[in-house]
């Protein structure tokens, strides 16, 4: 893992995002499905993942841009709920996630007499992002140091080590759980960290959950 | 420690300033040039005036050049600007030649050498014809989503010579074969318009305008322009007034030498029907402290424009901890998180309903106001803008 070395140091990497406009826009649910099929996977990632980077503080009603748009602009709360329950955590690849989203919209449309359209609302604009990795200069070697660092580190580092690691960088588990397992030899904590579903809240909530886990582990090992 | 940046440590989200130092390490010694038509007036230059010195202090070779023009050039570029925003305009060959000539003259005297050149708005855009090295980006601050086609066709040939274009919203962009980036405007929390004010300062401004302190204040800050729909806001206020004893403040810049503005102001005054609880304020362009005090003194801010640019005044109000009721035009709905920091409404009735709802639920109002401030802290402050600039500088200059 690029953020660690043989002496078990974990180096926090933050990230900064620039949003790129793809110039494709959907005004109804059919177009949404059609364009979902043709946009680059980076765009699927953007609307289901970097959403968290852009909503670091406020948890929105729906956990991805597609569900949010369908609810807010089309007032189709049934499809919004169905899209919101799709959990990227369950998918091993972005392509599989894309297929699920498309098939869900198609299935929903097959039961509709008319296609919900953004008559008064704004279209869905497909974007993607370019992510720049930024070394934070924060390095830790123990769980206590990790706990202190995670409470203060820029939330983009949490995003990078959890979200980017999983799907875009195709790592088997997030960077934190990999470090707990490989360097700190704490397999239980690593399993709990790996099982932490980051899609059910904001980055700040994720930070808070991780702090709780670390505190529990430190208390258990008498170092709390 | 960079003093120019450190002063934001208290207001930026935790970790941001340290992160900016790290980000700036990636672009040390890069040369970043901004070019605009003016150095004073408008949100974009206010931000540049602060950002360029910060970047310099952080070790980036940042510069800001302003082009020199003539009265004819100003007239032509006003037409181009209006045309890009959808107004029917005619640009004759002679006018276009003036535009090209002034840009060519500026290209001869300005130092255009940089790793990244950011050209703001249409006036200096033709400088790209004289580009030397580095990456060139056209920063469009306008809503060019529905331009007058002949003007766009004429102008597009310059845009195509850029390496990328940057817009404030996806809907403001045109189809282009070059990469298009999205960069939201921002506010500076330390300027006169946004800095903290004491209770005494707020009271003094409210008293100055004869605004009662004991009654809830609904505020709309917008120029007197038909698209800002002050009359719609008056109608919403009247519906709410049946249930709540409140007052409405409509504050906008003065309309001297602006026949359209004068006409709108007259219509608004007529619609107000001498209601002593409606305060129509014409403010001079430099009335930043007054606007700050009005926003801080307000109970609810309404931004119900029918057509709007990004509408950064929404963020200004949110920064002061106010819930904002806004329409769907421009960037208003991008800044408001519906039902969390305020409400997005689609009609006069919708605005009236939400005003009533908030006035009946003061605890919701304070919760939304607090969320609004935090939302702006993370998304619409100058520190985020600085991070965007560093990122785009690194990404484009490394390609």
Which key features would you list for this structure?
heterodimer; A: 224 residues; alpha+beta; B: 399 residues; alpha/beta; Rossmann fold; 2 domains; six-stranded parallel sheet; 44% helix; globular
Characterization of the model:
- The complex is a heterodimer of chains A (224) and B (399).
- Chain A has 224 residues and is α+β, with helices and mostly antiparallel strands.
- Chain A has two domains: 18-127, no CATH class; 142-220, no CATH class.
- Chain A is built from ten helices and two strands.
- Chain A has helices at 29-38, 41-54, 65-72, 77-84, 94-110, 143-152, 155-168, 175-182, 187-195, 203-220, and strands at residues 10-26, 124-140.
- In chain A, strands 1-2 form a two-stranded antiparallel ribbon.
- The mean pLDDT of chain A is 89.
- Chain B has 399 residues and is of the alpha/beta class.
- Chain B folds into two domains: 3-186 and 381-398, Rossmann fold (3-Layer(aba) Sandwich), CATH 3.40.50.2000; 199-379, Rossmann fold (3-Layer(aba) Sandwich), CATH 3.40.50.
- Chain B has helices at 3-6, 16-25, 43-57, 71-84, 93-109, 149-159, 199-208, 230-241, 259-272, 288-297, 313-319, 332-335, 348-360, 362-379, 382-398; strands at 31-36, 61-66, 116-120, 135-139, 164-167, 180-182, 217-221, 247-253, 278-283, 300-303, 324-326, 342-344.
- The mean pLDDT of chain B is 94.
- Chain A binds chain B through residues 14, 16-21, 23, 25, 54, 56-58, 60-61, 72, 120-123, 125, 127, 130, 132, 134-137, 152-156, and chain B through 13-16, 18-19, 22-23, 25-26, 167, 170-171, 173, 175-176, 179-183, 328, 333, 337-341, 344, 346, 371, 374-375, 377-379, 387-388, 390-392, 394-395.
- Strand 1 of chain A pairs antiparallel with strand 6 of chain B, so a sheet runs across the interface.
């Amino acid at each position: 893992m690029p953020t660690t070395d043989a002496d078990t140091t974990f180096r926090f990497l933050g990230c900064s995002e620039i949003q790129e406009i793809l110039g494709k826009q959907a005004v109804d649910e059919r177009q949404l499905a059609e364009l979902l099929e043709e946009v680059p996977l980076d765009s699927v990632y953007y609307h289901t993942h970097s959403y968290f980077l852009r909503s670091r503080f406020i948890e929105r009603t729906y956990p991805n841009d597609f569900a949010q748009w369908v609810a807010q602009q089309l007032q189709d709360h049934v499809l919004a709920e169905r899209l919101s329950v799709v959990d990227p955590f369950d998918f091993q690849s972005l392509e599989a996630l894309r297929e699920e989203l498309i098939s869900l919209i198609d299935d929903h449309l097959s039961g509709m007499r008319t296609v919900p359209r953004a008559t008064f609302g704004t279209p869905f604009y497909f974007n993607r992002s370019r992510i720049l990795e930024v070394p934070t200069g924060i390095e830790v070697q123990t769980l206590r140091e990790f706990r202190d660092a995670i409470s203060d580190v820029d939330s983009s580092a949490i995003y990078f080590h959890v979200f980017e690691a999983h799907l875009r960088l195709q790592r088997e588990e997030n960077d934190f759980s990999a470090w707990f397992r490989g360097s700190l030899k704490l397999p239980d904590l690593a399993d709990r960290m790996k099982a932490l579903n980051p899609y059910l809240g904001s980055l700040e909530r994720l930070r808070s959950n991780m702090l709780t886990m670390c505190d529990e582990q430190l208390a258990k090992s008498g170092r709390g | 420690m960079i003093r120019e940046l450190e002063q934001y440590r208290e207001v930026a989200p935790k970790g941001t300033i340290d992160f900016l130092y790290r980000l700036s390490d990636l672009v040390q010694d890069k040369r970043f040039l901004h070019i605009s038509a003016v150095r004073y007036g408008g949100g974009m230059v206010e931000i540049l005036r602060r950002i360029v010195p910060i970047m310099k202090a952080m070790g980036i070779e940042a510069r800001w050049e302003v082009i020199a023009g003539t009265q004819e050039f100003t007239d032509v570029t006003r037409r181009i600007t209006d045309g890009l925003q959808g107004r029917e305009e005619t640009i004759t060959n002679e006018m276009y030649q003036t535009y090209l000539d002034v840009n060519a003259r500026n290209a001869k005297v300005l130092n255009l050498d940089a790793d990244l050149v950011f050209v703001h708005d249409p006036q200096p855009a033709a400088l790209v014809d004289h580009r030397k090295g580095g990456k060139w980006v056209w920063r469009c601050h306008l809503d060019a989503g529905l331009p007058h086609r002949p003007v766009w066709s004429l102008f597009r040939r310059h845009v195509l010579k850029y390496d990328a274009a940057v817009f404030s919203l996806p809907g403001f962009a045109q189809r282009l074969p070059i990469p298009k980036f999205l960069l939201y405007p921002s506010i500076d929390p330390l300027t006169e318009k946004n800095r903290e004010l004491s209770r005494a300062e707020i009271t003094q401004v409210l008293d100055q305008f004869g605004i009662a302190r004991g009654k809830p204040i609904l505020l709309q800050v917008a120029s007197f322009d038909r698209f800002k729909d002050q009359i719609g806001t008056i109608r919403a206020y009247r519906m709410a007034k049946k249930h709540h004893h409140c007052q409405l403040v409509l504050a906008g810049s003065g309309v001297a030498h602006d026949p359209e503005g004068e006409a709108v102001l007259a219509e608004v005054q007529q619609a107000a029907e001498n209601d002593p609880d409606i305060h129509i304020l014409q403010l001079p362009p430099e009335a930043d402290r007054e606007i700050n005090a009005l926003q801080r003194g307000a109970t609810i801010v309404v931004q119900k424009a029918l057509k709007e640019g990004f509408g950064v005044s929404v963020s200004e109000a949110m920064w002061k901890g106010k819930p904002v009721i806004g329409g769907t035009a421009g960037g208003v709905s991008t800044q408001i998180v519906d039902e969390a920091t305020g409400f997005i409404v689609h009609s006069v009735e919708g605005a009236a309903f939400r005003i009533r709802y908030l006035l009946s639920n003061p605890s919701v109002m304070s919760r939304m106001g607090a969320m609004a401030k935090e939302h702006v802290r993370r998304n619409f402050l100058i520190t985020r803008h600085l991070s965007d600039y560093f990122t785009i500088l690194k990404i484009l200059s490394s390609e």
